[in-house]
What does this fold into?
Amino acid sequence: MTPAKIIISRTDHIGDVVLSLPMAAILKKQFPGSEIIFLGRSYTEPVIGACPHIDRFLNWTVLEKMNEKNRVSRFKALKADVIIHVYPDRLIATTSRQAGIPIRIGTSHRSYHWITCNHLVHFSRKRSVFHETQLNLRLLEPLGIKRYISTDEIRRMDTLSIAPSLKKETARLLSEKKFNLILHPLSKRNAREWGLDNYKKLIGMLPVDLFTIFITGTEDEGLMIRKQQLTDFPHVTDLTGRQTLQDLIRFIAAADGLIACSTGPLHLAAALGKYTLGIYSPLRPIHPGRWAPLGLNASFLVKNGPCRKCRKKDRCECLESITPEEVKNKFMEIIKS
It folds into this structure.
């Protein structure tokens, strides 16, 4: 049976959503006549809207506030054949079962999936040697998609496509002669960070005649960034607190490259084909083997060896010990390759 409607459920962060989009690409190829519905949260809707393989966005931020009867009714009205629980959520799993969605796929490592799902896939994310995207694709096995898909194949997938249509005042900031580089130094504490002092030193090393630099982030992050004087350079423009997610996606699409730690913007840039460099901790399970940016022009830096003493700290000394010179040299290597 070819499923007419398939729901991909991933209601967490931007980077996680980006790394789920190859599922939509593969499902569209396998079942070209199917409608792919993505169940996500309001703030990730612009990401999902930029994926050419997704037909409809379903807003869980709205649905979870409904009473049970109305929520189940909305799920039933979709007439979906399949739901894939990429990010496990007890309420979503329960609602999909109550709505009678025929094929309900989830990982066996959530006890409530044994009651709410009728197709369980057995694997452990924490102990796996595979990339997050490859692990997501394991959940397609009950639909007959069982072949191994390499990260090289995933890199070549067109998972994000958006016209870099910018507001005139923003478009004027981009240089036609220099490399337009975005630095996204902070992560709302969602990832181990490289350190603002390192970014400041990196900015000082990047030639003014070659680079125009833009710093992005939230308004609160901007306060910290300005306090560390990262914006006190002639070739730096401070965009913190000035962009919606939609604006940021379009700006990344218009720029040439991005450097960041393991954040949503890093994965957006990689998926958009930009020159992308991620700065990573070697700690498991947050190491690049699991979370590296995937794109034709994406790469990463990480210190080799164990990182046991940083596990119980907010900071990672191994990550912070990567020098600005190493980052500069690696990025120059990427853009010249």
The chain has two domains: 5-155, 168-336.
